[in-house]
Amino acid sequence: DAGVIQSPRHEVTEMGQEVTLRCKPISGHNSLFWYRQTMMRGLELLIYFNNNVPIDDSGMPEDRFSAKMPNASFSTLKIQPSEPRDSAVYFCASGQPNSPLHFGNGTRLTVT
Amino acid sequence: SQKIEQNSEALNIQEGKTATLTCNYTNYSPAYLQWYRQDPGRGPVFLLLIRENEKEKRKERLKVTFDTTLKQSLFHITASQPADSATYLCALVRSSNTGKLIFGQGTTLQVKP
User: Fold this and answer.
1) Residue A54: strand, helix, or coil
2) How far apart, in whole angstroms, are the C-alpha atoms of residue B3 and residue B28?
3) Do residue A43 and residue B31 have CB atoms under 8 angstroms apart?
4) Which of A75, B65, B93, B95 would be a feasible disulfide site paired with A23, CB 3.0-4.6 Å?
5) Is the pLDDT confidence value at A97 over 80?
6) What is the rounded radius of gyration, in angstroms, for the C-alpha atoms of chain A?
7) Contact B30/A at CB under 8 A
8) Cα separation, B33 vs B57, whole angstroms
9) pLDDT of residue B94
10) Closest to B43 in 3D by CA, of A103, A69, A17, A95
11) What are phi and psi of A86, to 5 degrees?
């Protein structure tokens, strides 16, 4: 089992550009979560899916952020347009409902 | 508003001692609580889960307690080792129906040889 796979590992982009982060959850896991981590705010839940359906997106900061899960093995988090304050580490995690989460190693995003 | 509080200051202890980390929460009645370990440049890794009707859980050198009256969980590492140095995060699920997992900010533990 390769675990949760996120790509890219690092992303550096200029303000105003579109950024797409990708996640492949562990096969068989029904829940998928996107988190953002910064020194100031810690690990914040952005959105989570159950069986590919978005359940709670109340943590998505604003309309510039969107997430999709077209099938059980793939999810994307898109930021358009990106801003310097979006700089953070973005984590994807998967699991079964009410079970521990398995995290990827994150995407470090830097917006200049 | 709902809050999860962990000691923001780093905890420094000597090898062999017991490390105790605290997680306090307000305005929650969590269905269960989890503890994770995070190393630099990596994602959090699950350690232990304790449910609202459980007082204590153990796994090897790790012990977690859960006091729903005090709204507090304590995480203990006995016979600590330098390899235990990491950031430890507590996380709560408010309702088992949603599985929505909310994290505290974490406490960094440094074990000195």
Assistant:
1) strand
2) 8
3) no
4) A75
5) no
6) 13
7) no
8) 11
9) 73
10) A103
11) -80, -10
